Sequence to fold (420 residues):
Amino acid sequence: MIRLYYAPGGCSRAPHIALEEAGADFEAVRLDFQRGEQRGPEYLAINPKGRVPALVTDQGLLTECVAILAWIAQSWPQARLAPLDDPWAFAQVQSFNAFLASSVHVAYAHVSRPGRYADGADAAAAMLAKAPEALGGFFALIEAQLADGRPFVHGDGFTISDPYLFVMTGWVFGRSLVDPKAVPRVASHHARISERPAVIRVLAREASEA
Amino acid sequence: MIRLYYAPGGCSRAPHIALEEAGADFEAVRLDFQRGEQRGPEYLAINPKGRVPALVTDQGLLTECVAILAWIAQSWPQARLAPLDDPWAFAQVQSFNAFLASSVHVAYAHVSRPGRYADGADAAAAMLAKAPEALGGFFALIEAQLADGRPFVHGDGFTISDPYLFVMTGWVFGRSLVDPKAVPRVASHHARISERPAVIRVLAREASEA
Fold:
């Protein structure tokens, strides 16, 4: 039994896509963040962090996108979602994903969830004002890292970095925090990933009635 | 050739300790953050992120603590710094480290480097005011995760999570952002790790003249 707790539009979309790409047999359990379900006693008993994604298997609970994505890649090796036999190449995948988690996602969260970092409307406004600068710098680094003419983050093969970047670009393009024209390779990557059947399935599931 | 770029007191201390624990042959290269060396053209040519840690090997550059620590564990398997043969247990190590990187380190950085997230003294004060609440919640989760009577984060064996937690606790205890009395297992862990020969060597190197 594998159960993925997710919130529509959340970063849980990345492991959700990875599970689909892996051909995993899993149950996707939606949480309603509008109603604060992630902070309710029922969910906190499952995941004390009160966040998504959370993956529950027969072995227990696993949290944090970076760890869940790597575990999916290791658990379905035939899906080739990471270069499992090359520690250096695997480390580059982990490095890319860790950067998304601790720099890109965090910078975006200052816009989407300012109360996580400071209280008050003035502080929220100051954080909102800073976000485009921070995110612009981060996406310039990502743009430079994407090789011209190669379809995926790490080259010719789809990896667990691709759905994760796809989620982040969806966020920052969606709120006009980064201009797609400033990062054409990232924008092209986003369009390419959006057309994958696994991605289409996940977006349809997220959009369906609860 | 392995070269670790570090800043005294920075989170680079975690992979620095891990390399010592692994018995690796490496060169530690100090950056002077007071003089802004991490933003100078020489270092940016090595690591465009302008941060530490950065690991340079014959294969290239590797950044992000979470990825560097895992790579060290995989590259010196005889040091047993992670449960490499058990994907679920390995994922738990990665999850713990990812939480330190994207929640704990980030919350602390709002105190140590507020300008990363917002400009102005008022915003900095608001972020400083929020940090103890955020960090208190994170360390309560960590305290609950540490098993009573077992010496290390993941139980009886030292792993790459131990030096990383050690660095974070040093930060938050040092600035009185978390009260050690509120997290006795974490405090005991900190004292235990501080006595390891590898840790003593790294702290001495950081404290020595440049």
The domain at 3-80+198-207 of chain B is CATH 3.40.30.10 (Glutaredoxin).
